[in-house]
Amino acid sequence: VGFLGFTILVWDHAITFADEVEIIWGRPKNFGKLNRYLTPIGFIVNLVAYSLPSWSFIVSAICKHFVRYEGAMTAIGIQVVALMMFLRVRAMYRNNRYAVSLVASLLFAWVAVGAWLLSHGEGQRLSYLAYSSMLRKGLASAWAWVPLCYDTVVFALTLNRTLPSIRDKEAGHVIRALFSDGALFYSVMCVINLIFTIMVVRAPQGLKNITGQ
């Protein structure tokens, strides 16, 4: 599953590289640069850890440290995107401090919950040589449903800003892009996080975190 996800990620980078150069590289302050390359680099380390035979002899010692790295890289990649969504909401609701404060509070809660879960995570054997991070029982599903709540609020605020203009046929390209991109992003993330939440709660040991790959 990890290699499949990485292959899709590399393919996506390849077909969008021209757009990346045109849209992202020319801007001095852009979180897109961070997320475009931090995530693949972190993923490569994960894949090496999963497949390197030498790890099978010392994996129990390494696992205690590596699972923190694996979880942290996942959290950083996802939360950089969440920060970009917050900046989008702030731009749409620059005159509404309540909406901006709500999203900022949810983002802070997400980061805090994620940090707590990572600090209490444990290694989980996946195969004869592979380990993955395993969150403790109880609040483990919060790793999935807290981001789902955040995405839901962001999507609802996006709909509230874009749908009236679309219904009145006054929406320009930017408004339509905000609506279509927001709907696509939310639908994919909603399905993934719902499946992840169910698997963390119901799946047997060793399979609980497979959706996180």
List the SSEs and their pairings:
Layout: H1 2-15, H2 17-23, H3 31-51, H4 55-92, H5 97-119, E1 122-125, E2 131-134, H6 142-167, H7 173-202
Helix pairs in contact: 1-3, 3-4, 4-5, 4-6, 5-6, 6-7
Produce a short descriptive summary.
Helices cover 75% and strands 4% of the residues.
Give an overview of the whole structure:
There is one protein chain. The chain contains 7 helices and 2 strands; from the N terminus they run αααααββαα. The protein is mainly α. The protein is globular, with a radius of gyration of 19 Å. The protein starts with a helix and ends in an 11-residue tail after the last helix. Residues 127-134 have low confidence and may be disordered.
Widest sheet, order of strands: 1-2
Assign a percent range to the helix content: over 70%
Oligomeric state as shown: single chain
Main pleated sheet: 2 strands, antiparallel
Distance between the termini: 6 Å
Spatial shape: globular
User: Which stretches are low in confidence, meaning pLDDT under 50 for 5 or more residues running?
Assistant: 127-134
How many individual β-strands? Answer: 2
Mean pLDDT: 76
Structural class from helices and strands?
mainly alpha
Beta-strand residue percentage: under 5%
Which radius of gyration do the C-alpha atoms yield? 19 Å
Number of helices: 7
What is the N-to-C succession of helices and strands? HHHHHEEHH
